[in-house]
Amino acid sequence: MGTNRAHVSERERGSLRYVGFVGWVAFACGGWWAIPVSFSRSVCCHPKFPTPLRPVRARKGQNLFPDQTHPRTNPKMAAATTASPATAPSSFPSTTRKSSLPILCVARKFKVAAASLSSDPSPAFQSVTAFAPATVANLGPGFDFLGCAVADASLSLGDTVTATFDPALPPGTVAISAVTSPARPHLAARLSRDPLRNCAGIAATATLRALGVRSHAVSLTLAKGLPLGSGLGSSAASAAAAAKAVDALFGSLLTLHDLVLAGLESEKAVSGFHADNIAPAIQGGFVLVQSYDPFRLVQLPCPPSLRLCFVLVTPDFEAPTAKMRAALPKKIDIGHHVRNSSQAAALVAAVLQGDAAGIGSAMSSDGIVEPTRAPLIPGMVAVKAAALEAGALGCTISGAGPTAVAVIEGEENGEEIARRMVDAFWSAGKLKATAIIAQLDRAGARVISTSRLLK
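Predicted structure:
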């Protein structure tokens, strides 16, 4: 087996021209950023800017992803093992911000390096517990470059990771001592405790490496609040919570950008090189992935007065990201490209202006990805129609699905819209579904508890 490489597929390598924004977006953003416009008679639906990635190395004789399945769904990996940062070389660069603008940028020639920090930091706490919210990626026309964080008041809509300083483990390693799923007990058995096969473990290892930790080890416990394959950023939530917890355990030395890069190590291994889940999971709010080469993120500030809520309806149906990506068309018509680009620009403008109706309208206008994925989710077309008829401002597929997300302003009409959507999943798709009303989460991954070092 030797070396496992996390690829960007050849189909994705041809996708350099999807993210086209018209010039007035730069004006709407206050003039401090702009995205180049490029047009083609025939463009790919994938908007990534692929870069050659260094391999994620397995231990000798080990295949990290046998049968190309989700790395956390192998029930045979029951015993906790350890992973050293040295065994997983970084594939992503890092740098510090060069201005006060909300743009995070890094050139490929730079690397996440412990040398930029104090050498081999010591733990600041005995343990740290961090929470990371669910995320809605794509937001309709923003395939692979727009996403936002969502959470409920009880923080049940997300994942929680506790990172503990553990002197009994080999220095510089990560172990996963427990995986639980309070709301879905059967889910815990599907998640591996091997840190090389678990999203939280991969991100924690990358975070230790970025911190330069060599003399201390970390044990993780993961509490899954999100279902797998739901379109709510389940893998990103685990990675974001782990990265945040480990960084806080050693004194919160990393920037948000470094944490996103650590989380991308996990996302790259699990579902591909895309940041529209992990970036908002860590940073909160709305995030635009302006480019992948160089890697550049833009936080989209929206007015505090915006009372944006999301009706999330998840059917009893899994939609693996790999399968949903395989269904996408390889090429699209220039007219579809122009229309989706204008709707993505309109969505960004609506976020900046705090226009809930504009956000909903743009989210409902994807003419490329949603039409190809909706038929793969039984009842989705009827669910969208039901949401709009009930008064939702907009509705689309969350991420790769199968969750349907409807946008409303305030929660007053949320329960009725949720009921109509759940009924539509059953009547049109014969799928049972659950609904939750969430708010825009502006905080992203955060520490929720700490414990002092033991003397």
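Summary: Residues 1-82, 86-101, 106-116 have pLDDT under 50 and may be disordered.
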